[in-house]
Write a structure and sequence with these properties.
295 residues; four-stranded mixed beta sheet; alpha/beta; nine-stranded mixed beta sheet
Length: 295
């Protein structure tokens, strides 16, 4: 059991929603959902030496979520989340916080060496300290590790250089339709249709898979020589916070369990649809969604 860990790497923060504060951040959301499929998972980030840092770790403990989360002399991260009339969030992400300053420690290096899969994004690379740590972590993972770049463009917290470096280090890219338009402009192929953009990126960066989510218009998984498309189920939306992370966590857990891509895709779609019906990013999933033998 040396190489047995699924890791969410990056920001740990509190989503300050209209109905109250909820623990969030894509890496923790991803790790939490992958854990519901029976995998050993771990959230890697940093929290402050403050009451909110204490609360973060207590909440992880309560959710039985493992973490490597050094305490640093910066405030624990928060995000002000406003929801529109259909529950779609906009974010005001506070800067110069703990997760901008994740130190690369021996414990982080040992964690990286045990990875079967790691999911990381662009947001936590907005500061040089955490960017270096994330790159060193990825470089320390085993060769056959699934390295998922969930691009997660937020506000102006990304650059072409960071995106290129991340694409070079990943073997799976997860992107949404709006982000694909931005990337198309930034990388100089705005005229291509979305499928051709996806095939181009898959080939250019020698990716194993590219996952494209299009909100209510369905989702796609591109892999070498094959494509899976599924419609988005129509559900009563409470909010969409964390839905994308639940998609990624359940997809990765399903792939690592040996499900074919289309079956893993189907599981991810159903999980993320369920998460949209719940408030907050980390609801407990019903057993029929996590029972991988039920397909």
């Amino acid at each position: 059991m040396e190489k047995d860990l699924i890791v969410g790497l990056g920001e740990a923060l509190w989503d300050c929603l209209p109905e109250g504060r909820k623990l969030g951040g894509a890496p923790a959301n991803f790790a939490y959902h992958a854990a519901q499929f029976g995998f050993d998972t771990c959230a890697v980030s940093a929290v402050g030496n403050d009451a909110l840092g204490d609360e973060t770790l207590a909440e992880f403990d309560a959710k039985h979520l493992n973490y490597v989360m050094p305490r640093v002399d910066f405030p624990t991260g928060t995000v002000q989340v406003e929801l529109d009339e259909v529950g779609v969030p906009t974010y005001d992400i506070k800067q110069d916080v703990a997760w901008d300053n994740i130190p690369f420690t021996d414990q982080l290096e040992q964690t990286a060496k045990r990875c079967r899969a790691v999911c990381f994004g662009s947001l936590a690379q907005r500061s040089e300290v955490s960017r270096r740590t994330i790159q060193r972590f990825l470089d320390a993972t085993p060769k056959d590790c699934l390295r998922i770049f969930d691009i997660n463009l937020r506000q102006n917290f990304y650059s072409k250089e960071v995106l290129c470096e991340s694409l070079r280090r990943c073997n799976v890219l997860k992107i949404n339709d709006e982000e694909l338009v931005i990337i198309g402009r930034m990388f100089g192929y705005p005229g291509l249709d979305f499928e051709n953009k996806c095939w181009l990126i898959l080939g250019k960066y020698n990716l194993d898979m590219l996952i494209l989510t299009c909100g209510v218009n369905g989702s796609y998984v591109f892999s070498k020589g094959a494509m899976s498309y599924l419609e988005t189920p129509r559900v009563q939306v409470a909010d969409t916070v964390g839905a994308g992370d639940s998609f990624t966590g359940s997809f990765v857990a399903s792939i690592l369990s040996g499900l074919p891509i289309h079956e893993a895709h189907k599981r991810a779609v159903n999980v993320s649809a369920y998460v949209c019906t719940q408030q907050g990013a980390m609801p407990a999933l019903p057993e029929e969604l996590t029972n991988l033998s039920a397909e």
